[in-house]
Specification:
Helix content: 55-70%
Number of domains: 2
Main location: membrane
Strand content: 5-15%
Keywords: Membrane, Transmembrane, Transmembrane helix
Shape: elongated
Structural class: mainly alpha
Membrane topology: Multi-pass membrane protein
GO biological process, one term: transmembrane transport
Strand order of the largest sheet: 4-3-5-6-7-8
Largest sheet: 6 strands, mixed
Number of strands: 8
GO cellular component, one term: membrane
Length: 570
């Protein structure tokens, strides 16, 4: 019994307890490949955030172990992610006044807050937030993040300094700054690009970023590139876990991180679930959204406790894992163990990494998020989706990443409320076989004489029932021959007991009675009968009829020969 409870809390234990020997060779190869891709990217993302490169390795190790135990996806790899790192960097930068120690401390605090938000949300079973941001909004957001990272790294790639903080300001000064390009730095960047492209076209299965970092770091170490003015990392010293300096910032600053950490939790979880679901679907199994939300929170808390920064689903590393044929989360354990060995025994080599090479690797990684063509393709397919995506992209670029993320979250909420406040509706009819379908322009579905079948495509609640009532009366008044019966598809609209809804229904019954129309609610007969009694509608039983479904309603009406024949003669 205790073992089952432990397995529910740690789903990974169940996978390990049923592990097969024939899986190990696949998991070992996948673990080596994931580590090879994760190492340079983690270091580059640490540089993006303005903290020591070694911290990027911390953000890989303990979170990978944590997700292997608490996650439900067999292929997903957690780790530093371009979007999460960019959000943290944008949130923390205005608070640190160029103090790297404070930057590191606030990064840990924000990571911890993000993890706590996720764990609390999982406790309240808010995994449904995985669908909170629509794909068009997320596309706009990710493209904005990618462009922000690319522009931010151009100074490192070309070797100039003194660029302003804002994205638009950086773009405006870029032409002038290019005139002061440091040629040796640019040459190192070109070498890095050539290595990446050569590996991509000749050996696409090889870890291009890792090979580029190893070769450029070796060149830097052998030829002392620093003496030519090429900046190197130069801040990675010692082995093992670093010690975080004693906090030297006012605790009140942490209030500034509450909303950004909440935004980060939402963005991280949405992208996290998109990656997890896609690979779970591909490999034929299901994942639990609430368990994944908890696993993401625990992974971020583990990262904070190991002095790392926020993590999410690493889509590129997950794709590598799946392509190599990784079977279980042992891949994460193997990859984390390899990174730990590098951390313990090879940190001196990391000192010589050229910053320009890190900038190129970041641009290379961010380019996977960049898909402006996907946004443009929405223009022909769905104008509304295109507008949402474009608005989000412009918001991120114009008002900054943190505010842009806030706009994206707000836009997702407004999109949801608009659908609920003003949903679509249809009039229904029957085909030649007597099947009920929506009446659309050009189709062969015909209305039933004397009967209006109506469907409101949203649950009725206090903030949309007035619109429901308005739409019903508009449809009634528009028809050439007023019906004697209005049949509402109650299975779609009446999902819960709402006092405001039934008060409005009572008013609607009265207005329909004046027009000589009887209201019929079709569907949810048992619940509706109980709710009507509880709300004590003033209308009589003859004014409101509740039946099991639409077909029953039609048969009931047509079974009244006297009324039906009188109506046809009108």
């Amino acid at each position: 019994m205790q073992w089952k409870k432990l397995q529910r809390w740690m789903p990974g234990l169940g996978n390990f307890s049923h592990y097969r020997k024939e899986w190990f060779s696949h998991d070992l190869r996948a673990g080596l490949s994931v580590a090879a891709v994760a190492l340079p990217v983690a270091i580059a993302y640490a540089e993006l955030m303005g903290i020591s490169a070694i911290i990027g390795l911390y953000a890989c190790i303990l979170p990978m172990f944590a997700y292997a135990l608490f996650g439900t996806s067999r292929q997903l790899i957690v780790g530093p992610d371009a979007a999460t790192c960019a959000v943290i960097a944008a949130a923390v930068a205005p608070l640190v006044f160029d103090n790297e120690d404070v930057r590191w401390q606030l990064t840990i605090v924000m990571t911890l807050m993000t993890g706590v938000w996720c764990v609390v949300a999982s406790h309240f079973r808010l995994g449904a937030f995985a669908d909170f941001l629509s794909r068009p909004i997320l596309k706009g957001l990710m493209n904005g993040v990618a462009l922000t990272i690319i522009v931010d790294q151009l100074a490192k790639v070309f070797g100039f300094s003194g660029v302003p903080a804002g994205l638009i300001e950086r773009v405006l000064v870029l032409p002038a700054k290019l005139m002061s390009t440091h040629l040796p730095t640019l040459a190192m960047s070109v070498v890095t690009v050539l290595i990446l492209l050569t590996v991509r076209f000749l050996r696409p299965a090889w870890p291009g970023p890792l090979l580029a970092m190893v070769l450029t770091t070796y060149i830097s170490w052998q030829f002392g590139l620093e003496k030519y003015g090429i900046q190197i990392v130069g801040s990675v010293s010692g082995k093992g876990l670093p010690i975080v300096p004693v906090p030297d910032f006012q605790p009140g600053i942490m209030r500034e991180l509450v909303i950004p950490s909440l935004n980060l939790a939402v963005i991280s979880f949405v992208s996290f679930m998109m990656t997890a679901r896609s690979f779970a679907s591909k490999n034929g199994y299901q994942i639990d959204a609430d368990s994944e939300l908890r696993a993401l929170g625990i992974a971020n808390i583990a990262s904070a406790l190991s002095q790392g920064f926020a993590v999410s689903a690493a889509s590129s590393r997950t794709a590598v894992n799946d392509a190599i044929g990784g079977k279980t989360q042992l891949v994460s354990v193997i990859a984390a163990s390899i990174i730990l060995l590098v951390l313990l025994f090879m940190t001196d080599f990391l000192n010589y990494i050229p910053l320009s090479s890190l900038g190129v690797v970041l641009i290379y990684s961010a380019s996977s998020l960049l898909s402006l063509r996907a946004i443009l393709s929405l223009r022909k397919r769905n104008r509304q989706a295109f507008t949402l995506s474009l608005f989000t992209l412009i918001a991120v670029l114009v008002v900054g990443l943190i505010n842009g993320v806030g706009f994206a979250v707000l836009l997702g909420l407004l999109q949801f409320l608009r659908i609920i406040f003003r949903p679509t509706d249809q009039l229904l009819g029957v085909n030649e076989q007597g099947m009920i379908h929506s009446i659309n322009q050009g189709n062969e579905i015909k209305p039933i004489d004397g009967v209006m079948l109506y469907r409101f495509n949203s649950p009725l609640t206090y903030f949309n029932v007035s619109y429901f009532k308005k739409r019903v009366l508009q449809h009634v008044d528009r028809v050439q021959k007023r019906p004697g019966w209005l049949v509402v598809d109650a299975a779609v609209s009446f999902t819960h007991d709402d006092v405001s809804v039934f008060a409005a229904i009572d008013e609607l019954i009265t207005e329909l009675k004046v027009k000589g129309i009887t209201l019929v609610l079709a569907g949810r007969r048992t619940e509706l009968t109980r709710w009507i009694k509880q709300n004590k509608l003033k209308s009589s039983d003859d004014d409101l009829i509740v039946v099991p479904d639409l077909y029953f309603a039609v048969r009931m009406i047509q079974s009244k020969p006297e009324w039906y024949s009188n109506y046809i003669k009108r």
